[in-house]
Design goal:
The chain has about 140 residues and is mainly α. Helices cover about 85% and strands about 0% of the residues. The protein has 4 helices and no strands. Keywords: Membrane, Transmembrane, Transmembrane helix.
């Protein structure tokens, strides 16, 4: 793979990884522990934050995929890049869409039990982190 494209893809991969870890595994759980933050307030903040994160992730995914394709990456690197892009698409298109419908109901005042959908979202985040680490390491080895 061309070194310039590998550097670009690697840098964007690690920026993406940092954003996911910071928001999903630091900001999100801490937000609900802050004084005065109710579930509806936390959900409202979360919707804004994750909508913005997912938009940035889509841009980073496009840049990473374009760099990997333009740089003539190995099948392994290309496979990792495609896997993380597909995972993001399913996470946003299916899991987050379901969570948004549920949060609409909560924000409308409906009392609902704890959501298992969030566990699915967390599982996707863990898988995404693992894929981004693997992709970033593979790109460093180029």
């Amino acid at each position: 793979m061309n070194a310039t494209w590998a550097t670009t893809a690697g840098a964007m991969t690690f920026v993406w990884l940092g954003m996911v870890v910071a928001i999903s595994f630091l900001e999100t759980p801490l937000k609900f522990r802050a004084p005065g933050v109710t579930v509806p307030i936390g959900l409202g903040i979360g919707r804004l934050v994750f909508r913005a994160l997912n938009r940035v992730e889509a841009v980073l995914a496009a840049v990473v995929l374009a760099a990997v394709l333009a740089g003539g990456a190995s099948a392994g690197v290309l496979g990792l890049a495609l896997a993380v892009v597909v995972l993001l698409a399913v996470q946003v298109g299916v899991v987050r869409r379901r969570l948004s419908r549920r949060s609409d109901r909560v924000l409308a005042g409906e009392q609902l039990p704890r959501s298992r959908g969030h566990l699915a979202y967390v599982a996707f985040e863990v898988a995404k982190v693992a894929l981004l680490v693997a992709l970033g390491v593979a790109l460093l080895a180029v």
